[in-house]
Amino acid sequence: MGITKTQIFNVEQNKLAVIFKVLSNPARIAILQYISQQDSCICNDIVDEIGLAQPTISQHLKELKSIDLIKGEIEGKKVCYCINLPKWTEIQTLLNTFFNTTKSNCC
Amino acid sequence: MGITKTQIFNVEQNKLAVIFKVLSNPARIAILQYISQQDSCICNDIVDEIGLAQPTISQHLKELKSIDLIKGEIEGKKVCYCINLPKWTEIQTLLNTFFNTTKSNCC
DNA sequence: TTTATATATTGCAATATTACGATAATAAAT
DNA sequence: ATTTATTATCGTAATATTGCAATATATAAA
Q1: Which of A19, A41, A60, B77 sits most deeply, having the most CB atoms within 10 A of its CB?
Q2: Chain A: residue whose CA lies nearest to B36
Q3: What's the CATH number for A10-90?
Q4: Which residues of B touch A94 (CB under 8 A)?
Q5: How many CB atoms lie within 10 A of CB B77?
C-alpha cells in the first residue's frame, strides 16, 4: 500500500509521527543545524553548504515550515530562514513528554 | 529518485535521521505506548490492540528492534516485547542534545 | 507424531519520498 | 523595460514505505 492508516490512531500519536517524519531526513537535520549557526541564512547559502540542488533544498525547507520548525522572512529578493524558537521548544517538550511517559510505564 | 544521499552527511546527522525515521509512524508510536503499559507484551495482543494485520505489526516490531528501542524475549511459543530502557534513555538524551545545541546557536 | 498456536518471512500492490531539470515568480539593479 | 539574482513550483524518474495475504517456522499441547 504505502499509505499509513492514520484514522486508527489518536491525535497525539499522529502528531508525534508527523514531527518525527519531518525530522527523519539527514538533509533536513543538516539544514536545521546550518540555519542555527548563521546570523542570517539565505537559501542559496544552504544550497552551497549542503550539496543538494536548489529545488531539493527548497522542498526540504517547505517541509520544515509545514510544522513551523522554521520561519522565513523575505528580505528583498532573498529569504532569511530562522529556527522558530517557541515552536522548537514546544516540540522538544512534546517529545520529552512522550519519552518520559512511555518509559515510566515500562516493566 | 527516492534515495537519500546519506554519503554527503555526517554520522551524527544520519544517525539522528534513522532514529527519527523509526519513530515516524503512528503505528510504531502506538506499539511503544502499548508495550510500555503492559507487564508482559505479546505480539498477538498488540495485533488485537492496534488493529493492523499480524505481518504488519511484526514488521513494525522489526523496525523498532533495528535500533534496539525494544527487545523481545522468547517465552515458549510467545515473545515478550519490552522497551529497552538503557537505549530508550540514550536516544532521549541524544535527541535533547540535538535540540539544545541547535537552538543555542539560533539568531 | 499430529495438531494448534504464535510469530516471522516473502511477495506484491498502492502510495510516499527523494532528488533534480525545467520553468515560473519575484524583486533589485541597470 | 530589461537583465540579473534568488527562491518556488511543476513534472518526472528512481527508490522507499506501508500493509496484507500466503506461507514458513517454531514451540507447546494432545
Answers
A1: A41
A2: A106
A3: 1.10.10.10
A4: none
A5: 6
Give the mean pLDDT of A67-76: 93
CA distance B82 to chain A (A): 7
pLDDT at A55: 97
Residue range B10-97 forms a domain whose CATH class is: mainly alpha
Out of A20, A38, A102, the one facing B20 most closely (by C-beta) is A20
pLDDT, one tens digit per residue, over A6-37 is 999 999 999 999 999 999 999 999 999 999 99
Classify strands B41-42 and B70-75 as parallel, antiparallel or unpaired. Answer: unpaired
More confident residue, A58 or B5: A58
Phi-psi region of B46 (alpha: psi -120 to 50; beta: other; left: phi over 0): alpha
- What is the chain A residue with the closest CA to B21? A24
**pLDDT number for residue B106:** 60
